[in-house]
Structure formats: structure tokens, C-alpha cells
């Protein structure tokens, strides 16, 4: 509809340098000069008075439909075009009685359909009429005019002509194809781009209704609102449309059940009435409106929430003022002339054409480019970056080191590669494989998933009776003390080079060694040899392999490792040969060997080589003599813990573990989970929180909590499930908070260790991040892991039966239901409830709702009512209703 000033402007759909200015009495076609940039009139066409609305054809851009106050709809053209059908210009569609035409809209795909909105005349009239502009009355059709009226091009098929009649889609007389909205007044209407048979119309100052031309007997959806003007469908999201009334601009989302509430609503400054509202056809989530007697255009950048489809979702926005100058000679000076209308360019970003309220040709229209905001930011290393639209400019000092990779990009890439998404026994193996190829992953992150993989295997192959599947070393040792008191077994392992050496042996200590990546010291120590051989195969871990062999009292093995490594490259491993020769001359702590070690230590840079000399120098009966080695920060945490579990008694070991745990929790070191374990305790949650605060990697923290079972309702172990057996339907974040918070908080209350809120916040933050990335499948898999199976302690012991080797799981209730169109209640629940005393099958009506007795919806393919039993074909004996229920949980 024309603006309050009776003037409007539209870009040509295909030609990017031409636009049409519509005045109350004429159509003016402008073209922007490439050299001067000034628009000039290239064609002009006089039209009749009382023009109310118009629309340009999406294919034949010089074909314009004009609607008048008398109800006439006339097809006209400001100039003749070779591709335009010659018979269309001048065609007129009118009714028997006069009623004002309020709006026109060409169908974007069915190019011969034109929709018009009209005022109400009487109760039997329809407000929305859809014409077929290619149709002609049968009485005027002749053989000579058929080919001229319907050329065989532009997607139109030939017609079969018979004298006086025609057959085919265009054989309908010049009357509406469809009549909609009886006894209403239409104020605006718009087609959907993809759903080309769907139309939305604003009616009678009360409703915005959705019509589907496949079923014109009733409207498909209705919203109760007074905002019935300026309907415009979002070109990038057809679920949304905008409309306005007076000074209120609103945006609605058709996906919401309670869609009477707009997802975005804003009042214009100074309560000025709105003249026009339009979505930006190039940029996402940009809405623009013009108010009456205004010299600026309001622009709103909508910020979509993560849960945009939720019932209570509300958009936020950032607004800006776009100034328009109509001074042709000084375009950079903002004029004071009122803007009558505007139009964004259909495919050039930030290009705008505006028309003023003055008739002066030099100040009538302006074709300009709106400048974007320039965002400037300093980097911590001194670089400067500025963003302008899609362009980024960065100024860096070459003296400063290159900036690190953005963590958000790293997390997005890992999520795309299904980081932590694989369920079942291969969950941890897939993470290890993925991180081995990731250059941004540090050693602690890679070690974390290898450690979880080892403990997962131990829990299946060992008598695992701990409170969680990933217990910490501290929990293991305290479990031993609670069972055996202070009694401890120790023995001397045979080694010719290290006589009288005492080590401590226990079942829990063997588990600690396996968890640290070492092996059991019981038996022939074959597990230790396997670990050492794997380190040697890497080619870069010879010092660590030799140190582990020495700590396990394999002095001869350590000398062999260093000797072979030194033979591989004389220049690079010269120090290894020197260390091997020194170890070969070891004669105990009473000889001159310690003095020689004291002189050699300052020349060694490798921490493991230094640790070997420290171990041999301070090897005595007292446990405190190993304190210098245990405090060496260059050694990996798991190696220090494994060394302590071999050479320290219970109480000194517990004291060392507690001190080390406090330090790693404070530092947020992922390797500290070896001490704290993965469970909803204060130490574990605080360690992960400090890790997130230090690195920002909320992705890893959330995945550790999920796979560690800290979020599984009612369980104390990870929720392991097969994706094919459980639903992938994402649940809402509040539901996750309600189910998981209660279980985790209850367990923490019983243990008296703290609050699980930080852990829940980390998981919810990552799920919201996946929502913002539109990774619905990845989020659904994680929520299935949270609410899926629960692992039972001891169910996978070695002496368990085969039926107990698989983790027990609980059936997840359906999250998607078939709802009645009228009452909104679940049809499945009502159908499955059995009546008392019922013996035979349910013979109730399957075409009506069990609650309100209204008819159930029909299938789009077979047109049967939902719930109708299918014939027993191809072995299918399930009803449609049962199939829907099965599909809701798969």
C-alpha cells in the first residue's frame, strides 16, 4: 500500500541500477548513472487517479499491477520490454461493486498468480482474491490470440485450444482462482517464498491469518493482534514475519504454539506512527522501519536467542539511525526533507534508495550507500583490528609474536568433527584419535582422554567397586585404608644393580599404576615392559622410558634403553651415552658415585635424566628422602604419582596425594583429575571451573562432566548409550537444569562437599553454544547421554554374568508427541490407556481425539486419520499412531 504521502519506490527485481517511483498520478522509471551516480528519469507513464497500492512482477520487471480505490486492478508498464507478454499490459480485473484495493502481491514462484486484498462490502464478499493473470474469458478466445496470449516460454506449457474454449491451467475465465477470508477486510498480505501456496494476511484490525491454497475451506493458523499493516516475510527465515500498527513494530514466529505473543516488539521514538517496515533482503536479522514526518530511517539488528523456538524466547536488538540526504550537489550533508518511502537493494548490501515528499526533480530521490559501524579493538599483544561489514583489517607489529588461534574456532571445529559425540565403548577412543590430529590440543588434554579410556577398560575387566567409574587416586587409597586398616604389604624386587630395595605392593596400588599409564609390579612385570616398549617406539620418549624402568628397579633395562638411543644419533644423544655410562658405574650410595652425580646434574636439561640421578642419590630406607624427586615440576604428574605409589607407604602417600591435589585444583590442571576423579564433588568441579577460567575451553569441561556421569539423573557414573537405541530429540535447557540439578545437588548435600551449580552451568553453556552454532544433532546426542543409561557400580565385574556385562538403562520417555489440533492434549497417552475389564483389542474410534472427540489430523500421504490401523502389508501390523510413537523415541 502507498505511504501516507501517496508516494513509494521499488527496485527493479533484476536490473540493479533501475528503480520505479510511484506517485499518485504517474509511474517514473529511474536509472542511476554509472559515472555521476545521480538517478535520472528514463521513462514515465501516466496512470489513473486514486492509486492505493502496486506491486512489480518478479520475472517481467516492467509489468506493474496497480490497485485503485474503486477496486480495479490494472496491469500496466512504464515502458515496453521484449520479454514481456504483449497481451498483459492493459488487462483489468474488477468486481461488480466498488470496494477499495488495500494491497497487491505477486506470487514469487507461480508467476501468473496475483493476490489482492480488499475492503469489506457485505457479508458474502471475500477480502482476499487471487487472480490468474494469464486467463482470459472463453468468449473472446480465438485461434489467432491463443499463441500471442500464452507464449510457450517462461515455464508456461502449451494449451489445447478448441473453438470458443480452452483447456489447461489458464482456461479459467477472468475471475478469481481463490477467494479467502469471507466477511473480512484485508489491510496487507504477503506470500511465502518457499511455500508458494501459503499466504499471510492482516484482517479486520483483529487477526493475522495464514492460508494454505491446498485447503481453502478454512485458515491454517490465526494470530490475534491489531498489527495488521505492512506484512513482510523474513527472506531468510520463513517462520517469521513483521507487521505494525500505529507506533508499534512486531515480529512473530509461526513455530511457537503461543504465537499470539510477538518474539520482538518495539515502539518508535516519540510515538510516531509507522509508514513502512521492511526486512533487509541481503543481511540476516535486520529490520528497518520509517515513521511519519521523519528525516531518518530506524534500523534494528535483531539478536536471536539460543532457544529461538522456545515458548518464552524473546529477541533483543541494537538500533541505529540512518540519515538520508536529498541534496544532489552536497550528498554528504544531511538534508531536512521528509522521507516518504525507501527500499533496500535486492542484492547489493547497504545500498538504499529513498524518495522525498517534494516534487523537485533534483531532490525527489536519492540512491546512496549506508555506511556500516566500524568496530575497533586492541589485541593484548599490541595489534589493532577494525571490522567494516564483511571486511576485516588488522594492523600488527612484526616485532610481536603471531596471535594464537581463536579458541571459539577450535571448539567449533572439534564439534563439527563430533568431539565427544560418539557413544558407547568407542567414546574415549574417538576423542583420543581426534585430538592426536589436532595441533591446538595440548598434552594434558590428550592425556585426559587416554586416562578415561584406560579407566573405562579397567572398569569392565576388573572388580570395580568404587563410587564412580572414574575414581581418583585419593579415592582409591582411602578405599584401601577403610577396608584393610593400616596393614601394608611390601617386598623386595630382585635386581642385581639395586640390592635391598623395598617397594609396596597392593591391589589398589596396581590399579593406580595402570591408571597412571604404567603397569602392575606383581608377577614378572610384563606390563611394565609393554609400556616401556611403547615409549621407545615413539622415538622421543627414551629418557622417560629409562626413568620408568629405573623406578621399577630395572637398572639394566634403563642402561640398555639409553645406550640404544645414543647409538641412533651421536650428535643429538651424546648426553644419553654419558648418562648410560654413569648409571653403569653405580655402586650404591656409600661410594663416590653421589659426588660424581652432583657434578653431572647441572649439565642435564632433561627432567627425567635428572630424576634418575636424584633417585639413585637419595635412595635410603626413609620415605622422606624421595621428597626432592616428588617435587620436580618437570616430571609429568602421573609419573610422580606412580612413583609415589611404588616407593611410599600408605600415610606418606596419602599426605603427598592431598598436597598435590590441592595444588592442581588451584591451577586448574586437567591432569589433576587423576587425583580428584570425575564425580560431582567440590574438588572436581572446582578444578574444571579453574580450567575454564584459565583457558576458556568450556567444551572439554562439559564433555568431561557428561561422559563422567556427573549429570546423569540418579546415577553416579557416566551415561553410556548407543545413539541408534535412544532418542536424539533435543530437550530444553531448563529441563536439563531441573532434572540434573536436583540429582547432583542431592548427592553433594549427602557428601557435604559443595554445590554442583558451576558444573551444571558449564554444561548448559556448552549446549547453548551448540544452539548458537545450529548444531542441533550434536546437542541432541549430548542430552541423550545426560538422560540416557545409568551405569551401575560393580555390574561389570569379572565374575558377573553375561547379562550384567551390559550397562543397565532406563527407557527415556517420549519427548515428541502427536497433539490434538483442538485441545492440544497428547493423543498417544489417551489411546494407550486401557479400560478396566477390557479383554479384546481397543475398538474405539481411531479418527477422533480421546479427550475432546474432535477429528484427528490426516496423513499427508495416505489421507487416513492418525491412529487408523494399517493393512497387514509387507509384515507391517503397527498402526500409524504406534509408528508415530516409535518415531518419537528413535
TrEMBL record:
Matches recorded under Gene3D superfamilies: YVTN repeat-like/Quinoprotein amine dehydrogenase
InterPro entries reported in the protein's UniProt record: MIOS/Sea4, MIOS_a-sol, WD40/YVTN_repeat-like_dom_sf, WD40_repeat_dom_sf
Pfam families (alphabetical): MIOS_a-sol, MIOS_WD40
MIOS-like alpha-solenoid domain mapped to chain residues: 411-645
GO biological process, one term: cellular response to amino acid starvation
Location of the region described as Disordered in the Swiss-Prot/TrEMBL record: 728-755
Biased composition (Low complexity): 735-747
Name recorded for this polypeptide: WD repeat protein mio zinc-ribbon like domain-containing protein
Phylogenetic classification of the source organism: Eukaryota, Metazoa, Ecdysozoa, Nematoda, Chromadorea
Amino acid at each position: 500500500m502507498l505511504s501516507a504521502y501517496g508516494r513509494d519506490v521499488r527496485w527493479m527485481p533484476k536490473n540493479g541500477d533501475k528503480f520505479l517511483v510511484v506517485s499518485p498520478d504517474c509511474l517514473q522509471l529511474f536509472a542511476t548513472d554509472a559515472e555521476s551516480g545521480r538517478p535520472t528519469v528514463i521513462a514515465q507513464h501516466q496512470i489513473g487517479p486514486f492509486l492505493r497500492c502496486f506491486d512489480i512482477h518478479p520475472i517481467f520487471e516492467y509489468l506493474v499491477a496497480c490497485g485503485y480505490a474503486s477496486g480495479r486492478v490494472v496491469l500496466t508498464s512504464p515502458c515496453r520490454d521484449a520479454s514481456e507478454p504483449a497481451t498483459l499490459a492493459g488487462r483489468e480485473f474488477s468486481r461488480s461493486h466498488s470496494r477499495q484495493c488495500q494491497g497487491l502481491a505477486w506470487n514469487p514462484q507461480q508467476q501468473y498468480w496475483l493476490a489482492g486484498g480488499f475492503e469489506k462490502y457485505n457479508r458474502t464478499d471475500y477480502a482476499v482474491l487471487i487472480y490468474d493473470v494469464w486467463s482470459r474469458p472463453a468468449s473472446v478466445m480465438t485461434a489467432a490470440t491463443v499463441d500471442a496470449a500464452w507464449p510457450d516460454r517462461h515455464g508456461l506449457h502449451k494449451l489445447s485450444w478448441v473453438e470458443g474454449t480452452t483447456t489447461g491451467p489458464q482456461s479459467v475465465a477472468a475471475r478469481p482462482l481463490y477467494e479467502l477470508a469471507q466477511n473480512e477486510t484485508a489491510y496487507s498480505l504477503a506470500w511465502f517464498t518457499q511455500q508458494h501456496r501459503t499466504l499471510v494476511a492482516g484482517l479486520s484490525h483483529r487477526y493475522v491469518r495464514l492460508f494454505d491454497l491446498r485447503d481453502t475451506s478454512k485458515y491454517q493458523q490465526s494470530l490475534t493482534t491489531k498489527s495488521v499493516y505492512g506484512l513482510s516475510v523474513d527472506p531468510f527465515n520463513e517462520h517469521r514475519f513483521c507487521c505494525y500498527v500505529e507506533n508499534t513494530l512486531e515480529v512473530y514466529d509461526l513455530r511457537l504454539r503461543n504465537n499470539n505473543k510477538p518474539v520482538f516488539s518495539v515502539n518508535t521514538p516519540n510515538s510516531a506512527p509507522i509508514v513502512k517496515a521492511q526486512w533487509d533482503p541481503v543481511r540476516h536479522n535486520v529490520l528497518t522501519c520509517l515513521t511519519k514526518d521523519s528525516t531518518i530511517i530506524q534500523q534494528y539488528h535483531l539478536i536471536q536467542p539460543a532457544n529461538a523456538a522456545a515458548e518464552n524466547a524473546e529477541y533483543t536488538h541494537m538500533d541505529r539511525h540512518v540519515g538520508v540526504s536529498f541534496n544532489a550537489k552536497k550528498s554528504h550533508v544531511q538534508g531536512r526533507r521528509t522521507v516518504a518511502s525507501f527500499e533496500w537493494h535486492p542484492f547489493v548490501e547497504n545500498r538504499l534508495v529513498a524518495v522525498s515528499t517534494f516534487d523537485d526533480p533534483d531532490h525527489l530521490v536519492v540512491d546512496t550507500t549506508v555506511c556500516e559501524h566500524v568496530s575497533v579493538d586492541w589485541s593484548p599483544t599490541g595489534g589493532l583490528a577494525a571490522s567494516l561489514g564483511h571486511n576485516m583489517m588488522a594492523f600488527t607489529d612484526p616485532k610481536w609474536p603471531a596471535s594464537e588461534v581463536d579458541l571459539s574456532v577450535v571448539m567449533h571445529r572439534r564439534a563439527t568433527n563430533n568431539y565427544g559425540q560418539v557413544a558407547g565403548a568407542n567414546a574415549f577412543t574417538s576423542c583420543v584419535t581426534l585430538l592426536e590430529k589436532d595441533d591446538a590440543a595440548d598434552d594434558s588434554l590428550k592425556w585426559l582422554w587416554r586416562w578415561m579410556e584406560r579407566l573405562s577398560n579397567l572398569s569392565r575387566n576388573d572388580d570395580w567397586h568404587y563410587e564412580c567409574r572414574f575414581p581418583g587416586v585419593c579415592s582409591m587409597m582411602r578405599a584401601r585404608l577403610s577396608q584393610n586398616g593400616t596393614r601394608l604389604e611390601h617386598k623386595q624386587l630382585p635386581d642385581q644393580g639395586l640390592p635391598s630395595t623395598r617397594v609396596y605392593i597392593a591391589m589398589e596400588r596396581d590399579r593406580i599404576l595402570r591408571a597412571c599409564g604404567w603397569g602392575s609390579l606383581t608377577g614378572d612385570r610384563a606390563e611394565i615392559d609393554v609400556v616401556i616398549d611403547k615409549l621407545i617406539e615413539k622415538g622421543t620418549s627414551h629418557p622417560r622410558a629409562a626413568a620408568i624402568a629405573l623406578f621399577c628397579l630395572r637398572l639394566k633395562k634403563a642402561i640398555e634403553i639409553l645406550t640404544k638411543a645414543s647409538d641412533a644419533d651421536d650428535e643429538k644423544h651424546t648426553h644419553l651415552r654419558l648418562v648410560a655410562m654413569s648409571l653403569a658405574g653405580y655402586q650404591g650410595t656409600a661410594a663416590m658415585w653421589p659426588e660424581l652425580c652432583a657434578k653431572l646434574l647441572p649439565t642435564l636439561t632433561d627432567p627425567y635424566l635428572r630424576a634418575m640421578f636424584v633417585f639413585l642419590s637419595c635412595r635410603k630406607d626413609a620415605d622422606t628422602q624421595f621428597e626432592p624427586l616428588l617435587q620436580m615440576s618437570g616430571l609429568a604428574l602421573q609419573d610422580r604419582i606412580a612413583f609415589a605409589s611404588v616407593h611410599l607407604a600408605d600415610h606418606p602417600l596419602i599426605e603427598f596425594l592431598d598436597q598435590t591435589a590441592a595444588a592442581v585444583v588451584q591451577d586448574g590442571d586437567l591432569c589433576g583429575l587423576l587425583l580428584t576423579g570425575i564425580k560431582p564433588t567440590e574438588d572436581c568441579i572446582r578444578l574444571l571451573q579453574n580450567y575454564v577460567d584459565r583457558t576458556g575451553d568450556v567444551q572439554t569441561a562439559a564433555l568431561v562432566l557428561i561422559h563422567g556421569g556427573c549429570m546423569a539423573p540418579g546415577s553416579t557414573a557416566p551415561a553410556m548409550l548407543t545413539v541408534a537405541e535412544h532418542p536424539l530429540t533435543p530437550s530444553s535447557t531448563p529441563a536439563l537444569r531441573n532434572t540434573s540439578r536436583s540429582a547432583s545437588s542431592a548427592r553433594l548435600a549427602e557428601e557435604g562437599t559443595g554445590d554442583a551449580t558451576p558444573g551444571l552451568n558449564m554444561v548448559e553453556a556448552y549446549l547453548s553454544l551448540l544452539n548458537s552454532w545450529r548444531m542441533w544433532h550434536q546437542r541432541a546426542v549430548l542430552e541423550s547421554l545426560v538422560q540416557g543409561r545409568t551405569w551401575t557400580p560393580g555390574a561389570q565385574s569379572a565374575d558377573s554374568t553375561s547379562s550384567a556385562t551390559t550397562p543397565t538403562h532406563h527407557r527415556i520417555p517420549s519427548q515428541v508427541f502427536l497433539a490434538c489440533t483442538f485441545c492440544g492434549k497428547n493423543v498417544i497417552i489417551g489411546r494407550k490407556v486401557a479400560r478396566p475389564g477390557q479383554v479384546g483389542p481397543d475398538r474405539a474410534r481411531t479418527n477422533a481425539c480421546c479427550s475432546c472427540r474432535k477429528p484427528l489430523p490426516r496423513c499427508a500421504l495416505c489421507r487416513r486419520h492418525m491412529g487408523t490401523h494399517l493393512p497387514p502389508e509387507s509384515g507391517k501390523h503397527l498402526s500409524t499412531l504406534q509408528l508415530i510413537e516409535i518415531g518419537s523415541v528413535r
